[in-house]
Specification:
Aminopeptidase, alpha/beta, 386 residues
Length: 386
Amino acid sequence: MPVVNRIADYAEDMKRWRRYLHQHPELEFACHKTAAFVAERLREFGVDEIHEGIATSGIVAIINGQGDGDTIGLRADMDALPMQEMTKLDYASTVPGMMHACGHDGHTTMLLGAARYLAETRKFSGRVALIFQPAEEEGGGADIMVQEGIMDRFGISQVFGVHNIPGLEFGHFYTTPGPIMAAVDTFEINIQGQGGHGAYPQDTIDPVVIAVAMVNAIQTIVSRNHDTRQQVVVSVTQIHAGTVNNVIPDVSYLNGTIRTFDKDVQQMVHRRLDEIVQGTAAAYGSTAEISIEIGYPATVNHAAETRFAADVAREVSGANAVADAVDMEMGAEDFAYFLEARPGSYLFLGAGDGAGLHHPKYNFNDDVAPVGASFFARIVERAQPV
């Protein structure tokens, strides 16, 4: 079964919705105008319930099917990124320093398309809970929605999400059972040296030299401390020190990211970072402090739900257009919190050629929205037939 014909009929409407959202990006939890637009569309479609203000600006909308049954959750993220758009499109962002560079405008549109179809046809039993989530990029909106009780409040039994991916063939899906995206932690290191004249380094404790030594030592965590059969990334992404060319500064600063799938590996990395920071600082006669912020957990797909979702994707895109045992990604995604709370699966949907995610020239491919909407709709109809 290809794209649902009725959803294909919505293509121009979906394009118009998406481009409006693209012009009006919002960040983190402050997705109020986006949520208002979503709620207005949902009322037009005649959904049965609209619950607003969850996790500040999130929405859960309910559509009742025919007869008793479970409630299946479908999620779209709504937030944009704090970056300047460079596409020069007619519908480019109207908000300086903000843009939809990850396609959340498209994800929201796909779920709206599915909502319109499901509210119109209702060819399913039980209920569907449409989850429009803020703060995926930063803030963990999924975690807040779970903490605020949406799974129990709406009786959600399983949950599914989709993310577009430029560079993957148009309309193709990929996923995998088990871990699909990594846990992400962030570390910051502050090194206290003793500054002085750059011509007399013997009278200083140089925090620049200490920072460089730490960076080199941190690389050994991956190369020497972990089992090569387990995936891990530790990247130092910032180093700051000094202000002028003839002064050795008092302090230096490092930060970076940790990506893991296994909690024991995660704990090992945390332990070794602390040992390296304290040991290196002591070796150079300085002191240092490290702080580690634990971020999103690994996104772990449930096996049965992933097999089911892959089968539905094959209905929509064809038997040869779905890969269901791909390698894990080192990116992170707060959909992980939904999957910790309920069984479900997370999939990627190919958007064809175009600038990559988080690039200032990225633009969601409007032609893929009916594919994603059809997948969402068929997930519900297949999981909960009348």
